[in-house]
Design a protein that fits this description.
The complex is a heterodimer of chains A (488) and B (59).
Chain A: H1 12-40, H2 54-86, H3 94-119, H4 133-155, H5 164-183, E1 186-188, H6 189-192, E2 202-204, H7 208-243, H8 250-264, H9 279-291, H10 293-306, H11 312-316, H12 318-341, H13 343-349, H14 354-383, H15 390-423, H16 435-472
Antiparallel strand pairs in A: 1-2
Helix pairs in contact in A: 1-2, 1-3, 1-16, 2-3, 2-7, 2-14, 3-4, 4-5, 5-7, 5-8, 7-12, 7-14, 8-10, 9-12, 10-12, 12-14, 12-15, 14-15, 14-16, 15-16
Chain B: H1 2-21, H2 32-35
Classes of the chains: A mainly alpha (488), B mainly alpha (59).
The complex binds protoporphyrin IX containing FE.
Protoporphyrin IX containing FE binds next to helix 1, helix 2, helix 14 and helix 16 of chain A.
């Protein structure tokens, strides 16, 4: 089977998803910056009539960056790296190739429809599950196709052992499938209201506390299986490959994998501390969240140790910089999360800006950094050209790092200030501040976050420009680089 | 429940190290899969030519 010399890895599907990752990344972060500015300067709500209000754009932001940008990044890196670690080319099976392309076509339709319907205000009103049922059905099809492509490739693989990244991709596939199905059980209001309702609006099959529990079982695990698991899959492949160093401890990677799988599913109720959910469940959410530090740090430390003896690469290769910083931010946010899940801390943190602060040191510093580094690494191999500009990557790195730091520090201060002000009482037990007092105090921090958004999106535009130049006009390579990505 | 999970965790760690010591498995060499990932490079654990290593299948 190994005689076919002309056979090459086929990156056509990976390329398609690379384009959408760049597109949705830019759009999603632009919207993020706009809504950040709206919180600081409310007049900005009136730019585009009903379509420009915070309430329309916020879910659009989260959906475009999650399902547009991140998921595209996951698919792009999957269709690239899975072939390589399984040592099998998509070109070897017409069927898998077809499934991959079909999946992309449907994905593009679904993502476009998602943007349009959410702008129109059609929504299930569940966080990260806003899409209405027809789109949900389409997504199920897309997900199944991904599964077919994944297990198809695994079925015809030459490398019998599954590399650790594949385990993580499989977990992403299974985890999301299960959670998505349960959380999106919904019935169109047309059927529930004696034909008075609408076909396009549906209500959840669960209600009250149950609905909240299922929602956050999903909500938190969307974080787990979309923002963590596939991103860990990426770093386990791209960091060793780019640096030329094998994973520091393969055993530790297996251990962290099973640890993460067992623990993550139980942590979701930390989103519902101090709510009507039974007490034992809240405690369980807290405890499992704290335990979660171990497998998370296991992976992150494993990555840092992979660089042992090779730290000079950190100064020489900007892609290594991105990845090392990504795993550092992963450590930061997986320490911060468990702290916020402790009940007494949560009493201050819940509903405050500290939460978006926590979210964004994870997504900006970890998820987006890792996806961009992965795509940069793939570009010279997919397009057979060197990366257009190293200087630009360096500049992008510093601009975006500054942005992340500004974002989370301003939100830490804002969040804790807010939490303290809400709870402050005078000697007679009366509340000392009204809500608007907090808004006035927080204004400067909101302005800083908007600035952070401008910086981050500028950095992302530099990334997009660099990628497009790499695809079109960079110097051509005669052979594929083995480890370090060549750049001008 | 907690005790059960803790026992499982330690059992798994011991299992990982034991099976390596006994020479049944070599986990660390799997790390090379990412580094040496050309289409025509020799698989770390190849399925076709060597029917001998049937124990290697992941659990
Ligand atoms: C230029 C970069 C970005 C800016 C300026 C930005 C800004 C914002 C703002 C203002 C909010 C609303 C916070 C609130 O309601 O108080 C938000 C929410 C959110 N953003 Fe972003 N964002 C950016 C990039 C991203 C990226 C890349 C991701 C994911 C890959 C992301 C994921 C989220 C999520 C999950 C939420 C919901 C957080 C929650 O419910 O607590 N953002 N973002």
């Amino acid at each position: 089977m190994q005689s076919n010399a002309a056979l090459e890895y086929d990156y056509s599907v990976a390329k398609l998803y690379t384009y959408t990752a760049i597109l949705f990344g830019f759009v999603g972060m632009l919207i993020g910056t706009l809504i950040a500015a709206q919180l600081a300067f409310p007049e900005l709500n009136y730019l585009f009539g009903e379509y420009g209000t915070f309430s329309r754009l916020r879910p659009l932001h989260t959906n475009v960056v999650i399902y547009g940008f991140t998921v595209s990044g996951v698919f792009a890196t999957f269709y690239y790296s899975a072939q390589r670690v399984l040592k099998v080319s998509m070109a070897e099976s017409k069927f898998i190739m077809f499934v991959g392309k079909l999946q992309f076509a449907l994905y593009l339709i679904a993502a476009t429809a998602m943007v349009v319907t959410e702008l129109m205000g059609i929504t299930q009103s569940k966080e990260y599950a806003q899409m209405e049922w027809p789109l949900d059905l389409l997504i199920v099809v897309i997900w199944v196709l991904w599964g077919v492509a994944m297990f198809g490739l695994i079925g015809i693989r030459r490398e019998k052992a599954l590399y650790i990244s594949m385990w993580y991709f499989i977990a992403c596939f299974l985890g999301v499938a299960m959670l998505y199905l349960f959380n999106n059980m919904a019935i169109p209001t047309y059927f529930t209201s004696g034909n008075l309702g609408s076909m396009m609006h549906s209500v959840s099959m669960y209600s009250g506390t149950n609905d909240a529990l299922v929602q956050w079982w999903w909500g938190h695990n969307a974080v787990a299986f979309v923002f963590t698991v596939p991103i860990v899959a990426m770093i386990y492949y791209f960091l060793p490959k780019e640096s030329g160093q094998a994973v520091y401890s393969y055993k530790l990677s297996l251990l962290s994998f099973w640890g993460l799988m067992f623990v993550y599913l139980w942590a979701g109720s930390h989103h519902l501390l101090w709510s009507t959910v039974p007490d034992w469940m809240q405690t369980m959410g807290s405890v499992f969240s704290v335990v979660l530090i171990l497998p998370s740090w296991g992976s992150a430390i494993n990555m840092l140790l992979t660089m042992k003896g090779e730290w000079n690469q950190l100064t020489e290769n900007p892609l290594i910089k991105f990845m090392v910083l990504a795993s550092t931010f992963y450590m930061l946010s997986t320490l911060e999360g468990p702290i916020q899940a402790i009940k007494s801390v949560n009493a201050i943190a819940h509903f405050t800006d500290w939460i978006p602060g926590h979210v964004h040191d994870g997504v900006l510093g970890w998820v987006a950094f890792m996806i961009m580094a992965g795509l940069f690494h793939m570009a010279p191999r997919m397009f057979k050209r060197e990366i257009y500009s190293k200087k630009l990557i360096e500049a992008q790195f510093w601009i975006q790092t500054t942005a992340v730091v500004l974002y989370f520090t301003s939100m830490w201060i804002a969040g804790i200030t807010q939490g303290m002000m809400w709870r402050a009482v005078d000697e007679y037990g009366n509340l000392m501040y009204s809500f608007i007092d907090t808004v006035t105090v927080l204004h400067p921090y909101y302005a800083i976050r908007a600035l952070a958004g401008v910086l981050y999106v500028t950095g992302f535009a530099m990334f997009a420009y660099n990628m497009i130049k790499t695809m079109t006009s960079s110097r051509e390579l005669s052979e594929e680089p083995q480890f370090r990505s060549p750049m001008a | 429940m907690t005790i059960f999970l803790v026992v499982m965790l330690y059992w798994y760690i011991v299992y990982l190290y034991r099976s390596e010591k006994k020479g049944e498995k070599d986990y660390e060499k799997l790390g090379k899969i990412a580094l040496d990932d050309e289409l025509d490079s020799t698989p770390v654990n190849s399925s076709d030519p060597l029917p001998t290593d049937n124990k290697e299948q992941n659990k």
